[in-house]
UniProtKB/TrEMBL annotation:
Residue segments, region Disordered: 193-225
Topological relation to the membrane, as annotated: Multi-pass membrane protein
Family: Belongs to the AmiS/UreI family.
Record field: compositional bias (Low complexity): 197-225
Listed InterPro entries: AmiSUreI_transpt, AmiSUreI_transpt_sf
Taxonomic lineage of the native organism: Bacteria, Bacillati, Actinomycetota, Actinomycetes, Micrococcales
Entry protein name: AmiS/UreI transporter
Chief location bin: membrane
Taxonomic source organism: Curtobacterium herbarum
Alphabetical UniProt keywords: Cell membrane, Membrane, Transmembrane, Transmembrane helix, Transport
Membrane-crossing segments per the record: 31-49, 56-74, 86-104, 111-134, 140-161
Length: 225
C-alpha cells in the first residue's frame, strides 16, 4: 500500500512540476493533487485507527499525513485560488520534519535517509518560492519536481514492490547520486529553458514517504516504500 502511495506521489510530482513549467494547466494538476492527497489521508487515517495507539506505527505514518495534507492543500489552492503564502510556510515546517526523519533513518535505512534529505530540499524550495516570494526559482523548482518524480518516488517504489530495495552504504551512495542528478540536472535544464514557466506555483513539493521492505508492514510515511 505504501509503495502504491509513492507511485501516486510520483504522478503528482510530475504533473505539478509540469505546471510550474507552464506545460500543464493548474486546474488539471490541482484535481490530481486533491485525489492523491485525499486518498493518502484516508489510508493514513485507516492505519492510525488500526494502530491501536502503537507509537511506532503512528510515527511511521506521520510523514505521509504531512505529505497527503500538502497535496490536498496544493490542490485546493489551485482550484480555489486561495493564495500560496500559507502553503509556503507549511512547506517550511515539513522541510524541518523531513530533516528529522532523515536523521532517524540514518542507522536503520541509509537509502531512505538520503531520500528524506532530497525531499527536505524540495520542500525548502517551496518555502522559498511561496513563503518568501522568490519567483526566480519557479523554473528550477519545476524541473526539480519533474526529475524527482522518477528518481525519488517511482523507482524507489518499484524497487520496494519487486523486493529489490537497496541497503547499506552502496545503496545510499546510489541514492545520493540520483539526487545530484535531480538538483544538478534541474539547474542545467533551467539554464536552457525559455522564461515562460508558470508564476503561480501549484505543485506538491514531495512524494509521500513509504514503508521499508524490511520494516513492519504499514503504509508508513517515515519508511521507504
Amino acid at each position: 500500500m505504501a509503495s502504491i502511495c509513492l507511485i501516486l506521489s510520483a504522478a503528482a510530482l510530475l504533473l505539478n512540476g509540469l505546471t510550474l513549467l507552464g506545460r500543464v494547466p493548474g486546474r488539471d494538476s490541482g484535481v490530481a493533487d486533491v485525489l492523491i492527497g485525499g486518498l493518502q489521508l484516508l489510508l493514513c487515517t485507516a492505519v492510525a485507527i488500526s494502530a491501536d495507539g502503537s507509537l511506532p506505527a503512528l510515527f511511521a505514518i506521520t510523514g505521509t499525513f504531512l505529505f497527503g495534507l500538502t497535496y490536498l492543500y496544493v490542490g485546493v489552492d489551485a482550484l480555489a485560488g486561495l493564495g500560496s503564502a500559507g502553503l509556503g510556510w507549511f512547506c517550511g515546517l515539513v522541510a524541518v520534519a523531513a530533516v528529522v526523519f532523515a536523521g532517524v533513518h540514518v542507522a536503520d535505512d541509509p537509502v531512505l535517509a538520503v531520500l528524506w534529505v532530497g525531499w527536505a530540499v524540495l520542500w525548502s524550495l517551496f518555502f522559498v518560492l511561496l513563503a518568501l516570494g522568490w519567483s526566480s526559482i519557479t523554473t528550477y523548482t519545476g524541473w526539480a519536481l519533474v526529475l524527482a518524480s522518477p528518481l525519488t518516488a517511482l523507482v524507489p517504489a518499484l524497487l520496494a514492490l519487486t523486493g529489490h530495495w537497496p541497503t547499506g552504504p552502496a545503496g545510499a551512495g546510489i541514492a545520493a547520486l540520483g539526487e545530484v542528478v535531480v538538483f544538478g540536472g534541474a539547474a542545467a535544464l533551467t539554464r536552457r529553458s525559455p522564461r515562460n514557466a508558470a508564476t503561480s506555483p501549484t505543485a506538491a513539493p514531495a512524494p509521500a514517504a513509504t514503508t521499508s521492505p524490511t520494516a513492519a508492514p504499514a503504509p508508513a510515511a517515515t519508511t521507504a516504500s
